[in-house]
Each structure stands twice: as C-alpha cells, then as structure tokens.
Amino acid sequence: MHETLMSLIQLQMIDNQLLMIQEKLGDLPAMVQGLKEEIQSKKESIKTNTAAVSDLQSKVLVSKGKIQDHKAKLEKYQEQLYLVTTNREYDALTTEIDYAKSQISEAEMTILESNEQIDKLEGSVKVDEADLADLLEQLKEAEEALADTVKSTESEKELLEDKRNEALSKVPKRFYQTYERVRKARRGLAVVPMERGACGGCHNRIIPQKRVEIQKGNKLIVCDICGRFLYWNDDNGE
C-alpha cells in the first residue's frame, strides 16, 4: 500500500479516537464557560445596583439636610412675621416662607422616591446574590466533573497525540491540508474504505477502473463526489 495512504489511514484512526475522547467531555466545557459568563454578569449587576443604592442613600442624606435647613429658616421667618410693620415686609416674608415650604416638600418627595428605588435595588441585589451563590456551586460541580473526565483520559490523549504527530510527519503537507479540509467538511471522516464498490463515506458508486486502482493501493485515490481518500480493506468482503 502507498506509504502516504497508510499514514493517512493511521491518522484518521487516531483522530477518530481523539474525537471519542472529546465526546466524553460532552457539553462540560461549554457549560463551564457559560456559567463563568453568567457569574460575571451577576457580579456586574450586583456592583452596579450596589453603587446605585449608595448614590441614592447619599441623595437621601442631602435631602434630609435640606429639610432641616429650610425648617430652621421657616421657623425664623414665622417668628419674624409678628415683628413686621409694613405690608412690604410681610409680603417678602410670606414669599420666603412659601419657598421654604416648597423646598421641604420637594426634598421629602425626593426622599420618598429614593427610598422606594433603594428598596427595589436592594431586593434585586439580594436575588442576584442568591443566584450568584447557586451559580458558583454549579460551576464548582461542573469544573470538578470536567477535571475528572480530563484526568481519566489525559494519558490516553497524550499517547494518541504522540502517535498522531508521528503519523503526520509521514504525510506531505499538501495531502494533510486536503485531509483536514475534507475532515472538517465531512463530519470528521476524510479517509474511508471502499465498500461494495462504493465510497464508504458518501456511498456513491465508484467506476470499475478506480476500484482496481484502489485495490492495488499504489496511489492516492479520492472519491469524485465527497473528496474523501479511499482505500481497499481486505476485511470488507469485496
């Protein structure tokens, strides 16, 4: 059999085994990554809402100070009302009193609205913190499962990768490029045996002349339909 074809067959067998190892991991790698992204999103939400609560609490303190200030002024203006002697002074004081009252009312409304927002945000933070604790636990379990699976296949994978590199060293670059291109396009299969006069990959019939060439194994033959490398298998009952 052609040396490059033998190496390609070996390469395909090794890649099949590596794929089986990858399938053992299942969706664990994607699950771990998804959990990490969700955890990061929760952390950012908690950080944003906590900062918003802090800003609103500062706003409440400022408004409380404003109320105290205007109440003091209001008390002073109301005392002065009894001392005025002209209508002009009276009108000026009542204007100041009305302004102080409006500022107190405005500050009280700000406090009310801010406290409502604070309650909502603190509620969201509590929910996010509970979700975060649950996600962290899920991540821990997923990472442990992934680590166990990786550990159980690590030595086998390393051995297969060494064999793959050895087989790869015997395949000319242009044939390896074709192999990889076809393998990616054909669900991981780039080298298949001829089966009952047809391609073992796409099952399309092979012309008699090519069948003879495949059986001889003296050169590389590819399927005219799917582009896979074809070889003769003595055990296929041809």
Question: What can you tell me about this protein's structure?
Answer:
This protein is mainly alpha-helical and 238 residues long. It has 2 domains: 24-167, Helix Hairpins (Orthogonal Bundle); 173-231, no CATH class. Helix content is 76%, strand content 5%. The chain has helices at residues 3-25, 28-81, 87-168, 173-185, 208-216; strands at residues 191-195, 198-199, 221-222, 229-231. A 4-stranded mixed β-sheet has the order 2-1-4-3. A hairpin with a 2-residue loop joins strand 1 (191-195) and strand 2 (198-199). The protein starts with a helix and ends in a 7-residue tail after the last strand.
What secondary-structure arrangement, pairings included, does this model have?
Layout: H1 3-25, H2 28-81, H3 87-168, H4 173-185, E1 191-195, E2 198-199, H5 208-216, E3 221-222, E4 229-231
Helix pairs in contact: 1-3, 2-3
Shape: rod-shaped
How many domains, as an integer?
2
Oligomeric composition of the shown chains = single chain
**Total E-strand runs:** 4
Terminal-residue CA separation: 17 Å
Radius of gyration: 39 Å
Strand content: 5-15%
Mean pLDDT: 93
Which stretches of 5+ consecutive residues score pLDDT under 50?
none
Order of strands across the main sheet: 2-1-4-3
- Helical residues, percent: over 70%
